[in-house]
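Example record

One chain of 577 residues, shown exactly as stored in the release files.
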Amino acid sequence: MTKIGAFTFVLHSHLPYARQAGMWPHGEEWVHEAIAETYLPLLNALFDLEAEGVPFALTVGITPILAEQLADPLIIDHFVHYAAERAAWAATDVTRFEEAGNETMRDLARFYHHWYARALTSFRDRFGRDLIGAFRRLQDVGLIEVSTSAATHGYLPLLSRDSSIYGQVRTGVEAYRARFGRAPRAIWLPECAYRPAIVDEADGRSVRRPGLESFLAAQGLRVFFSETHTVEGGRPVGKAAGEALGPYGAVPRRYAVTNTARAEEPDEPGTTYQPYWVGDAPGQVAVLGRNNRTGQQVWSAAFGYPGDAAYRDFHRKDGVSGMQYWRIGGAGVDLGDKPPYDPARAAEQIQGHVAHYVALVEELLETYSRDTGRFGIISSAYDTELFGHWWFEGVDWLKGVLRGLAGSETVQLTTASRIVDEHPPERVMALPESSWGAGGNHFTWLNVDTQWMWPPIHAAERRMEDLVARVPGATGERRQVLDQVARELLLLQSSDWPFLVTTGQAKEYAAQRFTKHLERFNRLADLAEREDPLDEVSRQFLAAMRERDNPFPEIDYRVFGERQGRSDGDGGLAGGE
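Predicted structure tokens for this chain:
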């Protein structure tokens, strides 16, 4: 039977830089938890499917800052201790529950003991402690596409200097190339935050700043992803898109630019079932909108699968070991009344939800084909950490859906860049400024609680440009200082800090991390401005910072050379690129 449409999961894997930055409840344990509960189970599922000969395909995004942490020897060693420790805690629970005569809880403790032991065995033996290498292997054999992101998940639309946008994207691309042995073709814009071309009125002059797609095109990136409303909701109008962004004075006055010679007013609203060329980069960079119906089938609090009564409850934890021994039990069940988890019952429920989702994808694409006569595409995007960590059974569900759709007579499994290669866009779309945050705009990252963060970021951006101009060809110890200044700038720009402040998930921790990176940036910048050699105290400080904040070993500080109004060119790089 002829395929009438294509489907790709887009899994966005990201955690903030947490190496040696605290443990429980905030810090490096975030990474350990995600390895144990999400990344390892996902890799096991995908390698199992490969061993079965299932012709699956999906898009797995790994942010550069996450990749740096997953490959870090210190984090790897700490994870081995983490998994072994929890296996031991579960074993202790077995004894505790057996002595109490509680066979149900004893059996659940055994389940967790075996679960963590298997995770540790997989990590050591199946993947050789090299998770990035495992993802690379799956990409090399054509089963997945690994997409990239900005280096530290910086919130690009709110950065005031094009040097920072360029530096975030360029550093991310180069880090990907080093880890995966090829250039990336797909990118997840941090927080799905997009900005078209704008005219920025700052410093008494007007500068046309390119749309984000121009920065992607300059690095050879082919496709990015957007929230549903960005594609379906129409175009920005006049100044309104820009003026609404800076109510607290953190963003320079600017207004949107529409390139009417390239971007046509659509005859009909955009659809997430088709890719589109974007604004300033027609024929170069395409956008895929997140399909809302398939997304809500998982995300919705009202009817999403993860809320099923049979699935493990995330929030209730054992007071001694912290293990999660209970299931959701139904809507409105109080935390203290949760019934014991039943892994066999949960596994049975997964099969029904797999069948439902496979049928849903087929039905949606069949309906689109029937109504339009066109080959439709579904891009279903999720945070990877939803599966396994938040939704314990989620990886098994993913595995089942991939197996089911691989056998579909009507649906083709694919990846993001294959969609653009095999079904290139037929139209150009002018996307509005947007994100997948609350309200579809920048509010989650710029509001009364976070406005204090942006002036220091913008000041640091300009100071970095000045340093590149002052020392365009640093060598030796001074080069080490300038490269570390660039690392601290990238870490300062992480979208995670304002996000965590706004949501209250780790408000004090995030504010402290932001402040620390700002202090390190400025102290290192002071050192870089000095003409004389470093004294011993400064040299020790530099060594400590290079060990503590050590991502992107091949970083080049010159990528942050002034380039306002340009998305490519050599900037501060001597001799070009």
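Notes: The radius of gyration is 24 Å.
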